[in-house]
Amino acid sequence: MDLDVAHVRAFVRTAEELHFGRAAGTLAVSQQTLSKRIARLETLLGTALFHRGGTGVRLTDAGRRFLSPARQTVAAADAAVAAVSGKERPLRVDVWGHLYAPMRTLAQVAGRAGELTLGHGRDLPSVTTALLHGDIDAALGRVHPPLPAGLAHRLVRLEPVDAVLSADHPLAAEPVLRPNQLSDSTLWAPGTLDRLDFLHRFADRFGVRNTATSVNLGLAHFLAEVAAEPRRFSLVPADVPLPDVPGLRSVPLTDPTPLYAWSLLWRVGNGSPGLNGLATACAEEAGRSRWLEYDPTRDWLPEPPTSVPGPAGE
Predict the structure, then answer these.
(1) If DSSP codes are grouped into helix, strand and coil, which group holds residue 34?
(2) pLDDT tens digits, 106-143
(3) From CA 308, how far away is CA 303, in angstroms rounded?
(4) Hey, what's the torsion of the CAs at 48, 54, 56, 58, to 10 degrees?
(5) Which residues face 59 on adjacent strands?
(6) Which letter does DSSP use for residue 73 in this model?
(7) In this structure, is the dihedral angle defined by the CA atoms of residues 95, 97, 98 and 101, taken in order, positive or negative?
(8) pLDDT tier at 47, thresholds 50, 70, 90
(9) What is the signed CA dihedral for 173, 176, 180, 181, rounded to 10 degrees?
(10) What confidence tier does 181 reach under pLDDT thresholds 50, 70, 90?
(11) At 163, is the secondary structure helix, strand, or coil?
(12) For residue 117, which phi and psi values (nearest 5 degrees)?
């Protein structure tokens, strides 16, 4: 059977929003038009794709099975139009985890990844929503479960993490520190720990009993707060350029060395050549700069790396 891409697109957007009014708004059509397109698609397929009732809009079992190939159909149609028009748009990329400067990683591969358009920066929940809605094509940051269905990621960089602490901290003179030596210190966090998975997991793993929360007003302000209190410390990837903050000391961690994992995140079924180019550039730089070195006897990760296929291998 032949499917109308407009009908499939209407289904995909409604499945992502689970609200007919919002889905219609994002497609710039009336709710009546959207409902008619989905009804025609359901008639053609011979099955209902949504439950409509007092509990809201939900996907049926058939709708859940149809969603992934439907996304691929829409992406393929968009790619076909771009190929014919010769006006392939730049890859829309966003980042999150700004305190740890994700643009350092992206900047090292951007020149070999084709034309990129950078987003305004979000947190991980906002990034996943933007990807599922098609507002961006890819994102870079630290991924941690649970991720919504329909998204995939590839590990691109494992970065050693240093402790940053006041020069008056009792351990400030040490050339290196073991993470468990910090268990009696206060972990200073730029937000609530339940939203900062890496710091939360570090505290749990290495027995850090005392934590305190700041407000994220930028790296310089955050590190000045760390330097102001002799018992405070925090964690920063080793390659992050530190601002000139008086009274701050950075000390490498070892036995084990915590690693901060940067991943490329995208929507399943996004066949954009630009996405494949970015993934390839990341893989090449990882090999050149040894970004993915990991030894479980020497290093610590909240989630050990697994082999994840890239966009072209889905």
Answers:
(1) helix
(2) 888 887 777 787 776 678 888 888 888 888 889 999 99
(3) 13
(4) -30
(5) 50
(6) H
(7) negative
(8) very high
(9) -20
(10) very high
(11) strand
(12) -115, 125
Helix (H, G, I), strand (E, B) or coil at 141: strand
- Structure token pair of residue 62: 């058939």
Going by C-beta distance under 8 Å and a sequence separation of 6 or more, which residues neighbour residue 143? 124, 153, 261, 263, 265
Under the banding of pLDDT at 50, 70 and 90, the label for residue 308 is very low
Statement: residue 256 has pLDDT above 80 = yes
Tell me if the bond preceding 309 is cis, omega within 30° of 0.
no
Dihedral sign computed on CA atoms, order 180, 184, 185, 186: positive
Q: What is the dihedral of CA 173, 174, 179, 184, to 10 degrees?
A: -50
Q: Are strands 151-166 and 248-252 parallel, antiparallel or unpaired?
A: antiparallel
CB 19 within 8 Å of CB 57: yes
pLDDT for the residue numbered 5: 92
For the record, the structure tokens of 128 come out as 């996943």
Burial of 203 (0-12, 13-18, 19+ CB in 10 A): buried
Is 243 or 276 the better-scoring residue by pLDDT? 243
| Distance, CA of 244 to CA of 220 (rounded, Å) | 8
Helix (H) or strand (E) holding 15: helix 5-17
Among candidate residues 148, 143, 134, the one with its CA nearest the CA of residue 89: 134
- Show the tokens assigned to 84: 């014919």
Exposure string over 97-124, b if 16+ CB within 10 A, otherwise e: bbbbbbeebbebbbeebbebeebebbeb
Q: To the nearest whole number, what is the mean pLDDT of the chain?
A: 87
pTM: predicted TM-score of the whole model, two decimal places: 0.70
